[in-house]
């Protein structure tokens, strides 16, 4: 059977494809789509980084205040004698010591080691805030001997002497070195507890006019306290932390520091380069001292 074939020119006319202009238009649209997606990804990453920064800052602040608060709430506390050995044949006498034991005189919780003290501008061998309280052992079902349940800021408890068991002082000393929040425990050098700390300030609540019947509470610094640490009934602690992620913030963006002044944290400010365009958050907490056993 004879087959009919189209001329060569007619075969070519039935083939179709993209012209150069159509190809360029397609590539342009694809590149624009990728650019939009990349831009959205960068924005999402920036928002995620800022949220992560804020979360990390809040976690560090919570940890710092928990450590400081744990120590401040113990400031000046001493062992209690609750007459636990009294029985039916040996009733409690009103004259019995049922408050702080007089053995505290053996522990030097005095002017040399007050329950709370500090320095406004500490030197290399001084600390911004120092807290001290009595350490002692108590019976424990987990041990055949008495053990201490108290810990300093580094979770350390000094070895207790054989007798008397309450002749130890636990001390925690806090300071800002560089941009690290550090604490020195009992007989231990300082160790870093948190980083990216922009400021650490402590003021004290002092009671005055206690004999007039109208006592007053003043907020003062360590210099004003001088040596009268037995008049301190509370501490106001302020810290400023900053993040790691750079933020595109408007010129003049600021935060309120511990001293109440506005600090420019944008690129036009005077902060160090590693803190410019970074998220800064100020935290402040006031603690009331649970015990001032040596007051008066």
TrEMBL record:
<keyword id="KW-0472">Membrane</keyword>
<feature type="transmembrane region" description="Helical">
    <location>
        <begin position="20"/>
        <end position="43"/>
    </location>
</feature>
<keyword id="KW-1133">Transmembrane helix</keyword>
<keyword id="KW-0812">Transmembrane</keyword>
<protein>
    <submittedName>
        <fullName>PilW family protein</fullName>
    </submittedName>
</protein>
